[in-house]
Design a protein that fits this description.
Elements (H helix, E strand, L loop, with lengths): L1 H23 L13 H18 L11 H14 L1 H4 L28 H10 L9 H4 L8 H11 L7 H8 L6
Helix pairs in contact: 3-7, 3-8, 5-7
Length: about 180
């Protein structure tokens, strides 16, 4: 038992010290164009998921997923989100330049419940390019809870959009 406790204690101390040493020696990737190590990505996803589950209030989406609300959400997404999160036409790949890379919702729709998506949109994600809509644009009256809910309603139904909304989602934008 003594050997087990000694091994456990060494493991608990050695891992953080090793991580600090690797960082101090400059051996951890820090450039924005480097692919994050799998362990870093897994840890970040796990930490975000668990934080959101623990801290997001379980509020009910006030909007029904009608065609009108989904189209309004698509408009919000195109105006405020597609630049980083992409669209089905591949018109935007700006999010690929971020570290960590931004989720591309056209190919990997979010699979979180509405209340969690709303919390993420409203509060942002630390150490990423995802701003807090509620904080960054607090004095901008166009960034209301209603507008966030419209984007969330659209995003949470990307895999099952009604035909009219899906056609609009996949429509090629008109060049300006």
């Amino acid at each position: 038992m003594r050997r087990f406790l000694l091994g456990f204690l060494c493991g608990v101390l050695i891992l953080p010290v090793a991580a600090l040493l690797l960082g101090w020696l400059g051996l951890l990737p820090a450039s924005a164009n480097a692919k994050p190590p799998d362990v870093e990505r897994a840890f970040a996803r796990m930490a975000l998921r668990n934080y959101v589950v623990r801290h997001a209030p379980r509020v009910t989406n006030p909007l029904q997923p009608t065609d009108e609300n989904l189209l309004a959400g698509l408009t919000v997404f195109r105006d405020a989100c597609a630049g980083c999160h992409g669209d089905p036409n591949g018109e935007s790949d700006f999010g690929a330049a971020f570290y960590p890379p931004v989720p591309q919702f056209a190919t990997h729709p979010p699979v979180l419940p509405d209340w969690q998506l709303f919390f993420i949109v409203k509060n942002g994600v630390r150490y990423t390019g995802m701003p807090a809509w509620d904080g960054q644009w607090r004095h901008d009256k166009t960034v209301s809870d209603d507008r966030m809910w419209k984007a969330v309603t659209f995003l949470s139904r990307l895999k099952s959009l009604p035909p009219a909304v899906d056609a609009e989602w996949h429509k090629k934008p008109v060049s300006q």
